[in-house]
Specification:
Blueprint (H helix, E strand, L loop, with lengths): L7 H5 L16 H13 L6 H15 L4 E6 L10 H22 L3 E6 L12 E4 L2 E4 L21 H22 L5 H14 L7 H16 L12 E6 L3 H6 L1 E3 L6 E3 L4 E4 L9 H8 L4 E5 L5 H11 L8 E5 L6 H14 L5 E4 L6 E3 L5 E3 L1 H18 L5 E5 L34 H16 L1
Parallel strand pairs: 1-2, 1-14, 2-5, 5-8, 8-9, 9-10, 10-11, 11-14
Antiparallel strand pairs: 3-4, 6-7, 12-13
Helix pairs in contact: 2-5, 4-5, 4-6, 4-13, 6-7, 10-11, 11-12, 12-13
The structure holds phosphoenolpyruvate and manganese (II) ion.
Phosphoenolpyruvate (PEP) binds next to loops.
EC number: 2.5.1.54
InterPro entries: Aldolase_TIM (IPR013785), DAHP_synth_2 (IPR002480)
Catalytic activity: D-erythrose 4-phosphate + phosphoenolpyruvate + H2O = 7-phospho-2-dehydro-3-deoxy-D-arabino-heptonate + phosphate
Length: 449
């Protein structure tokens, strides 16, 4: 939607009259206003032109000409904004992407859940431990994870910290992806290391050798394209805290359109995608590519209504449906949605989140996921699209570059009894580095199979 600078305020804030789920209950609204006023004057974290470029890439995904790899922490944390953490995450995503690019033989659009993924919707407003109930932790952008009454009070100062943590993260990501660290031959060498040293590596040897041959062939031909030396990488997060997202929404001087400049792409979560709610109204007002999480209760009518609200012009690349059905249900629940949406003429990108429908609590009390369920949901996603002749557009995963023990299974066979060893997530359990690479190689096999 095109707006004049003058009318942008009313459009950007039209969501304010609507019910907004999952917002913090700030005790001091004056303090909130002071912070958001300051944020409105801060420089954008991304440029509208970059968001447009991602939108064009996602249009290729929607048309079946590219694959989306979207991944990162469930929740980023302020005390984990370090070069090592960011590098490890990026390295893992780049390694996955190299394997997927070769197997899918189409460009892989790389989008991190990064540089802004600090806010969490919660299924319960309170958390109870040993008979004591406190407000739930809602992400570092809202309150603290410590189980004390003080830490759990929402503090608007945290919005400012989120901005600065996001800026620092994005700055390093930009440095890594354009400054030589992302060199494809280097990324391939890391993959060769993984194949050599991981428990499941042998299985992937043939694929790794094929990639090696392809790179050697290019080298022998004297081909050394610029694309081998840097990568296009985008940042995304859930647009949950509307005060923050609105404070970072600006009119693009080139087009007069509104962009949320807190990230290239934002998505609306399963718990906040009410058609008459503030989040969908906010997403409708911005021109970034937007995603919507679609869970098992979604009806085809709801999906079509979301398209009407968010993609009235039916522009490929604008809207991505991120499905999260659960491994045991995706084969039944996804086909009617894809069929009806396709029949409507809309061109959405279909992306599989194989994490959020497969969470359970282990006897130890740890929230966890089975690697085999994650893989099976992706398998089901590919089967459904193959059956309907539509495009399995990509995967959206919660992962880290560290050797944590949060999900069970995978090539290194993490057992339920191992979970306590390195369970570090600020929210949901993530695939660790080797589980993420396992997934990429197995999805690559699926793509070819
Ligand atoms: C998430 O992506 O971390 C999340 C909360 O997902 P969903 O909205 O699908 O439950
Ligand atoms: Mn999550």
């Amino acid at each position: 939607m095109t707006v004049n600078a003058d009318s942008s305020f009313s459009i950007a804030s039209s969501w304010r009259d609507l019910p907004a789920a999952q917002q913090p209950d700030y005790p001091d609204l004056e303090a909130l206003r002071a912070v958001t006023t300051e944020l409105q004057g801060y420089p954008p974290l991304v440029f509208a032109g970059e968001a447009d470029q991602l939108r064009a890439r996602l249009a290729s995904v929607a048309r079946g000409e590219a694959f989306l790899l979207q991944g990162g922490d469930c929740a980023e944390a302020f005390d984990q904004v370090s070069a090592d953490q960011i590098r490890a995450k990026l390295k893992t995503l780049l390694q996955m992407s190299a394997v997927l690019t070769y197997a899918a033989a189409v460009p892989v659009v790389k989008v991190g859940r990064i540089a802004g993924q600090y806010s969490k919707p919660r299924s319960k407003p309170t958390e109870t431990r040993d008979g004591v109930s406190l407000p739930s932790y809602r992400g570092d952008s809202v309150n603290g994870p410590e189980f004390t009454a003080e830490a759990r009070i929402p503090d608007p100062e945290r919005l400012r910290r989120m901005y600065h943590a996001s800026a620092a993260t994005l700055n390093l990501v930009r440095g890594f992806t354009t400054g030589g660290y992302a060199d494809l031959r280097q990324v391939h060498a890391w993959n060769q290391d993984f194949v050599r040293t991981s428990a499941s590596g042998q299985r992937y040897e043939a694929l790794a050798r094929e990639i090696d041959n392809a790179l050697n062939f290019m080298k022998a031909c004297g081909a050394d394209p610029a694309e081998f030396h840097s990568v296009e990488f985008y940042a995304s997060h859930e647009a949950l805290l509307l005060d923050y997202e609105a404070a970072l929404t600006r009119v693009d001087s080139r087009s007069g359109r509104l962009y949320d400049v807190s990230g290239h792409m934002v998505w609306i979560g399963e718990r906040t995608r009410q058609l008459d709610g503030a989040h969908i109204a906010f997403a409708a007002s911005i021109s970034n590519p937007v995603g919507v999480k679609i869970g098992p209760t979604t009806t085809p009518e709801e999906a079509l209504a979301l398209i009407d609200r968010l993609d009235p012009e039916r522009e490929a690349g604008r809207l991505t449906f991120i499905t999260r059905m659960g491994a045991d249900r995706i084969r039944d629940l996804l086909p009617p949605l894809v069929e009806r949406v396709t029949a409507s003429g809309a061109q959405v990108a279909w992306v599989c989140d194989p994490m959020h429908g497969n969470t359970f609590e282990a006897a130890s009390g740890h929230k966890t996921r089975r690697f085999d369920d994650v893989l099976d949901e992706v398998k089901g996603f590919f089967e459904v699209h193959k059956g309907l002749g539509t495009h399995p557009g990509g995967i959206h995963v919660e992962l880290t570059g560290d050797d944590v023990t949060e999900c069970v299974g995978g090539g290194n066979e993490i057992l339920v009894d191992d979970l306590h060893q390195r369970y570090e997530t600020a929210c949901d359990p993530r695939l660790n580095r080797s589980q993420s690479l396992d997934l990429a190689f197995l999805v690559a096999e699926m793509y070819r199979g």
